[in-house]
UniProtKB/TrEMBL annotation:
Top-level division of the source organism's lineage: Bacteria
Span of domain ABC transmembrane type-1: 72-264
InterPro entries noted in UniProt: BP-dep_ABC_trans_perm (IPR050901), MetI-like (IPR000515), MetI-like_sf (IPR035906)
Similarity-based family: Belongs to the binding-protein-dependent transport system permease family.
Protein name: ABC transporter permease subunit
Residue ranges crossing the lipid bilayer per the database entry: 12-30, 71-95, 107-130, 142-163, 184-206, 243-264
Pfam families the record matches: BPD_transp_1 (PF00528)
Keyword list, A-Z: Cell membrane, Membrane, Transmembrane, Transmembrane helix, Transport
Organism of derivation: Paenibacillus plantarum
Membrane topology value: Multi-pass membrane protein
Subcellular location, principal: membrane
Location relative to the cell: Cell membrane
């Protein structure tokens, strides 16, 4: 069916409204983070920033505030390790499921799906007891372990579907040239599957970055807790709340995800599409 002029107008109108609905809250957050306390609580809110100040950002990153720099470091380290482990395991396991006839492969895929259903509060107490018995409470290690249990099943499923889109003739040609299976995987196959690998790595990073409940229960010191918990503690603390500092913290936390997604969005969309269609 050929798209008419009116249909095109209607489509772009809806997209514009969705864009406004998505961007306006962030733009207001960004705008307000540069205002003074008096301007934030003015009786008539305005987009105009006067006077312009960076006090909120100074508070957020300084020792008087939530020490966002340390919390960001914890989150970045935890999420980066999660993404790296997920990408490595999902790549190798997904390749094996896509290329080899494994007994009970359908059952394996069912388990991968069921693994996503048993998360959150259902297993919070077992995780806490496990971390306590292994002396992993208040460490980044336990967070990485938990995040990997959530991301690896999805990653294996997506990478398996992505590897199925790659012609096996390319691998056979590499074997004829004398390449080993391991060399063929890393030199021939993985470069072609890079969009899928980037997709699951970014998914893993964002999932860990947005986590609140596990970090809240399993960490309690500046050495391990993440940015989500740090901001929540400031908002729930007694006394005067520095809303400007909280807004500035929100901007700082959001920007890394926006920048990462903007850089690799092409790979993310290609990877998720191929994995979901062929998996």
């Amino acid at each position: 069916m050929r798209e008419t002029y009116l249909m095109r107008i209607w489509k772009y109108t809806i997209l514009f409204l969705l864009l406004v609905f998505t961007l306006v809250p962030f733009l207001w957050l960004l705008d307000t983070s540069f205002k003074s306390d008096e301007a934030i609580f003015a009786s008539k809110p305005t987009w105009w920033v006067s006077p312009f100040t960076l006090d909120s950002y100074t508070w957020a990153l300084g020792k008087k505030g939530i020490q966002l720099g340390k919390l960001l470091s914890n989150s970045l380290i935890t999420c980066a390790i999660t993404a790296l482990i997920t990408g490595l395991i999902a790549c190798i396991s997904g390749y094996g499921l896509a290329r080899y006839k494994v007994p009970g492969i359908k059952f394996i895929f069912v388990l991968l799906v069921l693994a996503q259903m048993i998360q959150g509060p259902m297993i919070m107490i077992p995780w806490y007891k496990f971390a306590s018995s292994m002396s992993l409470l208040n460490t980044k290690t336990i967070l990485v372990m938990i995040y990997c249990t959530m991301t690896i099943p999805v990653g294996v499923w997506i990478m398996s579907g992505f590897f199925k889109t790659i012609p096996i003739d390319l691998e056979e040609a590499a074997y004829m040239d004398g390449a080993s299976k391991l060399k063929t995987l890393f030199v021939v196959v993985i470069p072609l599957a890079l969009p899928g690998l980037v997709a699951i790595s970014l998914y893993s990073f964002i999932l860990g970055w947005n986590d609140y409940q596990y970090s809240l229960i399993l960490t309690n010191s500046l050495a391990a807790k993440t940015v989500q918990v740090g901001i929540a503690e400031v908002m729930e603390s007694m006394g005067s709340t520095n809303w400007g500092g909280i807004l500035a913290s929100g901007v700082i936390i959001i920007l890394p995800i926006i920048l990462i997604f903007a850089i690799i969005q092409k790979f993310l969309i290609e990877g998720l599409t191929a994995g979901s269609v062929k998996g």
